[in-house]
Amino acid sequence: MNGTKEDRIGVGVLNPGELFGEQIHYQIPRFQRRYIWNKEKHWQPLWTDVKGVSDQCYSGSKPNPHFLGAVVLQHVFKGIGQTQTRLVVDGQQRLTTLQLLIDATHKSYTDRGYQPENPLSELVRNEQKPTGNNTDHVFKVWPTVIDQPSFRQVLSDETIEDLDAPIALAHEYFRNEIDKWLDAEPDNLSARVEALLRALRSLLHMVVIDLTPTDNPHVIFESLNARGERLLESDLIKNMVMYEADREGLVEGTTNPDWLWDFNSRWWATEIGRGRIKQGRIDIYLNQWLIMRTAKFISNDDVFFEFRRYKDEIKLPIQKIAIDIKDIGEIYRSLETEKSHGGFEFPTYLRQFLYRRRVMQLGVITPVLLWLYSTEIPSDQLEKGIRALESHAIRRMILRNRTAGLNRTYVELIRILESSDPMIAGDVIVGFLSRKDSNVASWPTNAEIEEAFLNQNSYRGLTRGRLRIVLEGLEQGLRSEKAEEQEPRRDLTIEHVMPQEWRENYPLPPGVASEDRDHTIHTLGNLTLVNRPLNSAMSNAPWIGKREELSKHSTLFLNKELVDDYDDVTWGEAQIEVRARRLSQVAIKVWPYADQL
Questions:
Q1: What is the pTM for the complete model shown?
Q2: What residues does each domain of the chain span?
Q3: Structural contact between residues 103 and 154, judged by C-beta atoms closer than 8 angstroms
Q4: Which one-letter DSSP state was computed for residue 484?
């Protein structure tokens, strides 16, 4: 790997003894992703291979070396007497895992009192005193910022703060497997240790490419994206931000300014979504931040390409762009968690909307919210805009309008807002949504809402969560300012006033077909909310029995009206229609049309 000149490119096949044997420090750059290897895909197959080679060594047969893959390194200029350093351009997951495996082996045989002539600790730590203040140079490999605490704690036998960190889990896995392998024949401990040492030092091979100090690691890193674990769009953006920050002289040494990259927590790394379609929160956020900033629809796979175009077109220093990503990120996290980050405030109307947005799975509206809450807008206009967005979305949901294409509607809205006076942002939103007349984005009228309440099979046409937020909104609309609580509980169940099994206690009146009733009982005029014990108690009881139970136990205004306004002996189609018309008027007030906002 070493040449006669500092800047010579070296390409060779090395084993861990050669790679880690000298006084050297492999530094994983800031732009690299955190450690993500796991048991099923990586640790277990690696240990199976290492164990196989070790078994061959132990049995005395000729071992077959195992190829681990490629590593790309780059020289870093250091002063005389300083530890020679390489940037790990590619292969950081592999190098980190090797260090954890080697250290776990060292601790396993040490715990059993075995002291080899050449301990593995010399492949994990630099024995010479680190130069200057670079205490991290004691480690042969030094991971990216988020993994440094766990890595130091594991290798230094300190208390591990995050037991679920992948680095801690990997080390624990290797310790357990190595312990089992060594203890398989305790009387031959020394022979088994030496076989494992030989496998780890000499029989794991890697192709190592050593680049000159003047090569651009950002470009190389990006070009290697097709190999191994596919890099995420956020990895590539982080890579560019870190590289540009270094190039502009904004980062000194290994210090990370607060503005540089503030998305290393597990919350940001957590993958969310449905089924197999999942993304890390950081990737979702960067997509939505970029949509908000460019007012363009951007697919998940084009985020880095569009980010690079945005950076080139806007011609701002990378620091300003990074600060914007960080600041908007605090708003995004507040909106997603419904908890304040960075002093974000939650008026009641916003908290309600965020809850309903979550139930509706209306993530495509997030870029609009990011724009609104990162812009100076009068509070009354902000509230008007949010109420318009909610009314538009809820009304469309009640009518079961399709949502395909709404993402482009919201992108168009951002463009309109960008070209308008933010002092009238709420009015702009109302005007924009009210002008939409296509099925993709039209704002349902009051007449359409009443028709849906009267005739739509909402129980089977809406998910339970979506139907619940409609009924919760109706309950809230029925409550006066004098009510002790303004918001209903969110753990109530949906109850059919006339039960689905209606035939025993609800005889059909003349002229009503059973199939018509089977449809009517699922309309909103026949639905209410109750708690679970009350739901079970009423079950398929006749109306007189249900009415008595509701009168005794329910405190909801939805049910108070049922008890007070429908005191007939029977509950049937006529009563359901009257109640549906009444509730539709409540819905129209809770989610008003444009001319009532």
A1: 0.68
A2: 10-228, 232-346, 349-438, 448-596
A3: yes
A4: S
